[in-house]
């Protein structure tokens, strides 16, 4: 089954217009309304991430940013919510999706369409603002690749908020992404690694703080999207969650040249195909074996 086709939007493809400029849902405005509505019992952690993720997906999956958009408010089908579509894309349970939608309605982020007996919903005018980078993303293809990966989608939302232009390199840090996505630094790092493995993001690694990122050509609709089975990382790293990140080719390099590998903040360049293994020493410190000769050990 073609996953990208199976998750294409069933919502009407349209866009609301704000003084002639492309407009969409502002995550900042959503967060402000949520904060005001639940000031006495603030939403934190999983609850806050769920409502922001659901609002984001309702927006970008609506067809608002498609080439054939028209200048009408986006209508949200109750069937799309109850029928499991948001579950499929976000990876959340139906109970968490419905709970998030209820919170969004309580906060006034989404509202019922006036004089409509079908239960249709729409975004409140208070969260509709002129959009930036979202309008350049091929969301039908990107959501097809990221289906079921809610954390990676949330991290991608944070990446887009921090980029100046999606086709140019932007310097980002895990710490900054973690704050924007409401995740730990480790979860932000794992989300970035998934986005690179799935070829949504490209990266130039640096030895200093932060790396440079940009969206891939296909994510911008400038090339054919990769097949889902082709997005599995070719380089295998044992226990990537311990601080070793998947090796990524340096911008401009060929498949037969070198790749940049980040291990606990240290970036080294090694030939493509180099095997990397992680072991735990007697003192409990990790030791990374990079190829047959290089060993990296953390010292106090």
Q: Can you walk me through this structure?
A:
This protein is of the alpha+beta class and 300 residues long. The chain has helices spanning 3-6, 27-37, 45-60, 78-82, 85-90, 94-106, 139-146, 150-162, 174-181, 185-197, and strands spanning 17-18, 21-25, 110-112, 121-123, 128-130, 170-172, 201-204, 211-215, 248-249, 258-263, 266-271, 276-280, 286-290, 294-297. Helices cover 32% and strands 19% of the residues. A hairpin with an 8-residue loop joins strand 3 (110-112) and strand 4 (121-123). Helix 8 (150-162) crosses helix 10 (185-197) and helix 9 (174-181) crosses helix 10 (185-197). Mean pLDDT is 78; it is low at 1-19 and 232-256.
Q: What is the quaternary state of this protein?
A: single chain
Strand order of the largest sheet: 1-2-5
Uncertain ranges: 1-19, 232-256
Tally of helical segments: 10
- The chain-level mean pLDDT equals 78
Element pattern in H and E? HEEHHHHHEEEHHEHHEEEEEEEE
- The best one-word shape is elongated
SS class: alpha+beta
Q: Specify Rg, calculated over alpha carbons.
A: 21 Å
End-to-end Cα distance:
51 Å
% residues in beta strands: 15-25%
Strand runs, count: 14
In this structure, how is the largest beta sheet organized? 3 strands, antiparallel
Approximately how much helix is present in the residues?
Answer: 25-40%
């Amino acid at each position: 089954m073609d996953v990208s086709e199976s998750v294409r939007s069933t919502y009407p493809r349209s866009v609301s217009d704000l003084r002639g400029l492309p407009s969409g849902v502002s995550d900042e405005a959503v967060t402000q309304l949520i904060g005001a509505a639940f000031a006495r019992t603030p939403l934190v952690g999983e609850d806050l991430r769920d409502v922001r993720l659901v609002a984001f997906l309702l927006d970008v999956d609506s067809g608002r940013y498609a080439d054939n958009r028209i200048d009408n408010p986006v209508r949200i089908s109750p069937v799309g919510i109850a029928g499991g579509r948001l579950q499929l894309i976000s990876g959340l349970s139906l109970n968490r999706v419905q709970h998030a939608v209820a919170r969004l309605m309580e906060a006034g982020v989404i509202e019922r369409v006036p004089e409509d007996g079908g239960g249709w919903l729409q975004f409140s005018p208070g969260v509709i603002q002129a959009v930036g980078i979202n309008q350049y993303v091929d969301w039908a293809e990107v959501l097809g690749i990221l289906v079921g990966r809610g954390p990676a989608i949330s991290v991608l939302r944070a990446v887009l908020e921090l980029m100046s232009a999606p086709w140019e390199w932007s310097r980002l840090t895990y710490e900054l992404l973690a704050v924007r996505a409401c995740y730990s630094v480790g979860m932000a790092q794992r989300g970035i690694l998934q986005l690179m493995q799935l070829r949504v993001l490209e990266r130039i690694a640096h030895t200093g703080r932060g790396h440079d990122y940009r969206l891939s050509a296909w994510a911008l609709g400038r090339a054919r999207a990769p097949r889902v089975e082709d997005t599995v990382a070719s380089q295998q790293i044992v226990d990537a969650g311990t601080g070793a990140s998947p090796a990524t080719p340096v911008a401009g390099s060929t498949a037969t040249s070198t790749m940049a590998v980040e291990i606990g903040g240290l970036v080294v360049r090694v030939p493509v195909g180099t095997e990397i293994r992680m072991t735990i020493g007697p003192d409990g410190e990790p030791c990374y074996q990079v190829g047959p000769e290089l060993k990296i050990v953390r010292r106090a």
